[in-house]
Each structure stands twice: as structure tokens, then as C-alpha cells.
Amino acid sequence: MIYIGLDDTDNADSRGTGRLARDIAATxxxxxxxxxxxxxxxLVDPRVxxxxxxxxxxxxxxxxxxxxxxxxxDQVQSLMLADWQDGSDPGLCVARVVEPxxxxxxxxxKRDVVRQADxxxxxxxxxxxxxGLGGTDDGVIGALAGVxxxxxxxxxxxxxxxxxxxLQGVQPVKxxxxxxxxxxxxxxxxxxxxxxxxxxxxxxxxxxxxxxILFVARHESxxxxxxxxxxx
Length: 232
Fold this sequence. Notes:
The protein has two domains: 2-150, Alpha-Beta Plaits, CATH 3.30.70; 166-228, no CATH class. Helices cover 29% and strands 27% of the residues. The chain has helices at 17-28, 69-82, 100-111, 116-126, 139-150, 173-178, and strands spanning 2-7, 33-41, 55-62, 91-95, 129-132, 157-161, 170-172, 183-186, 196-198, 206-208, 211-218, 225-228. The strands form two sheets. The protein has a six-stranded antiparallel sheet with strand order 5-4-1-3-2-6, with helices on both faces. The radius of gyration is 18 Å and the shape is globular.
């Protein structure tokens, strides 16, 4: 797998980083096999500058053994700069091999204030591509963290997996499974193979156990339905 991390590509009035990540995934899908796009929550703290939620995004590309990482990074950089937003501080990270230090950095960014210098030091140590694309360049922090967290298979939630974004309204569990989600599971841990789920406009399955797992709870207004539970 090749991982591409993006962060801080937006401003208070623009589309979010997740939207840009999905748009870039659509472009890359013409040449590469895009497995998924995930969202990863970082520390929310007054000391940390962020636009809305301090989350970053990671694209997962299936590796075919012949991808030129520098050329791929150049392509993604061009796509990011073509959708530049005033006041943003975008960062980009691309890696084929995600070292433990990168994942450790990702977990640190979830619980502590980390600095741009910390991110650059880890990237240099691990040999991954890390680029600041404008503004303060602080987006490199979330870009690196996103890659480090994405490789764990146990953090964040999917912004794109299979055809799950096509599902609208009330859907049977079987349809949800057929559209690319691996498991529909109650918060108590029971997997469902039947029943109806109110998608509430969009599904955001959790990234757990290396799979897309949609956690659900009983719907308050209609106990015959399940509703999605968003987990970070």
C-alpha cells in the first residue's frame, strides 16, 4: 500500500480537506487502484491552530510495485495547489514504507501539541516524502500523522470505501455489505446480517481491524431501525 497524507488545505469558508482528498482520489483512480480515503482526528486544543475539527486525511493506494513515489507526490502536489485556498497551510506526505516512528508521531499528534520541526525530523529519519506547500507549512504535521495512523488499520473512519457513498436513505444490512463495508456491528460487538439502517445521508464506517466496520445503535425515534455511530 502507498499512503498519501493531506492536511490544512482549507479555510473557514472553503471545502474541507476530506472533500479535496476524495477529489484527488477520483483523479488518481484513473491511473492507480485507490483502496480508500480515511479521516483521522488529531488533538483539539486552543494551542493548536486548525480550521474546524483538526482532522487530516489519508489516501490508500494499492501498490503494484512500479510506482514512482516522487512523481506521484508531484502529481498530488499539483492537484493540491490547483485548489489552493487563501489562508491555508497545506502539507503533503507520501510513503510506501511507514516506519514505527511515523505511527508514534501520529499518536503523539492525537494527544499532545507537536511542532512542524518534530514532523520534519521524523520524516528525515524515516525517509518519507514530506512537503509544505504554502502558508506556514504547518500542514506537514497532520499530513505525516495521517500516514502514520492510516497504516495501523485501527484509527479514524472512512470518507471513501467501495461504493458506500452511493447509499442513501434506509438500507438493508445486506446492501451495505455489498457496497464495500466489511461488517455492520452493534456497539456491544454483535455483527448483523439483517435489519435496516437509516444511513442519515452518508455512511462513515470506522477503520478498525484493518477493515471498514459500520458501528450502529438503535434509532431513537424508530427502534426497528439502526443508525450509524461515527467513531474517531
